[in-house]
Structure formats: C-alpha cells, structure tokens
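agent> Task received from the user: take the single chain below, predict its 3D structure, and emit structure tokens. No templates, no multimer pairing.
agent> Plan: (1) validate residues, (2) run structure prediction, (3) serialize to tokens, (4) report one or two observations.
agent> Step 1 OK, no nonstandard residues flagged.
tool_call: predict_structure(input=
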Amino acid sequence: MNKPLKDSVAFQKWMIRFAVIEFLALASFIGFCLFSDQGIRVLVGGVVVISAVSVIVLFRKMEAFHKSNSKAD
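)
tool_result: status=success, residues=73
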C-alpha cells in the first residue's frame, strides 16, 4: 500500500475515533446538564466550548495530514 493511501486510511480511522469520543463527551455533558441547577445556560455554553475545541483539534489534525501528504509527493 502506498504512503498517501495508508495515511488516508489512518486519518479515516482517527476521524471515526474522534467522532465517537466527541459523541460521548457531548452525551455525558448533556446528561450532566439535565441534573444541573443552571440547566440550559450551562448546556448551551458547554456545547459551544466542546464544539469549538473539537473544530480546533480537527483542523490541526487535517493540517498535519495534508503536510505529511505533501511531503510524500
């Protein structure tokens, strides 16, 4: 298997793991907020923060993936 294809498969596996972790983080946070006194404010703020962090992590991973592919060319 050539390097770009192997990297692509590794990136896809990483994305699946990332999506599962993201889902579990959001689900546990939503579950926590259902029993919180602050309720919807904490829920909205937490979802925004978790989403922002996940977007930053995703873009950094994509950037590293593209850099490794450009070096392989």
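agent> Step 4: summary for the user.
Residues 3-72 form one domain.
agent> Done.
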